[in-house]
Specification:
It is a single chain. This protein is 41% helix and 8% strand. With 143 residues, it is mainly alpha-helical. The protein has a domain of 69 residues. Strand 2 and strand 3 form a beta hairpin. It is elongated, with a radius of gyration of 21 Å.
């Protein structure tokens, strides 16, 4: 898939201030407080330390749990969206759709044909044949 990724750039979600809510005790008042960058790092480290302690450094399996992760990427067009559509006669949505499918395939470790709606697979295959190439799907993702 690495050869297919030409317009995706890593994106850092930068935030100087965080406003977490906290509550002292079950019936306590919910309060927001402001965290600067150093305090955010300390809170993050405390959360990881708690997860490490609860899982006994990974020795204990945590079943029925969920971890929410935010991944950010920026799709950069070579031209403006208007120029892509008019001058290059290309649909910018299709380019963005391919980028999203590359990210989804990587995150879910699943080939695009398993992730796309069955009614859309043929259309997407015609637009991005390399993305749906048998060797790519078989070589990158476990069955």
């Amino acid at each position: 898939l690495a050869g297919l990724i030409t317009n995706l750039q890593c994106t850092t979600l930068a935030g100087h201030v965080s406003l977490p809510e906290e509550q002292r005790g079950f019936l306590g008042e919910v309060k927001k407080r402001t965290l600067d960058t150093a305090e955010q790092r300390r809170e993050t480290n405390q959360a990881y330390d708690l997860l490490d302690a609860l899982s006994r450094s990974g020795a204990l399996v945590l079943e029925s749990t969920s971890l929410h992760v935010v991944l950010a990427a920026t799709h950069c067009f070579d031209e403006t969206i208007i120029n892509t559509a008019i001058k290059e006669n290309q649909n910018p949505i299709e380019k963005l759709e391919r980028s999203m499918m590359i990210v989804a395939s990587t995150v879910h470790r699943s080939p695009p044909q398993r992730l796309a709606s069955p009614s859309q697979v043929q259309r997407m295959r015609e637009l991005s044949p390399a993305l749906f190439a048998e060797s790519v799907s078989k070589g990158v993702f476990p069955r």
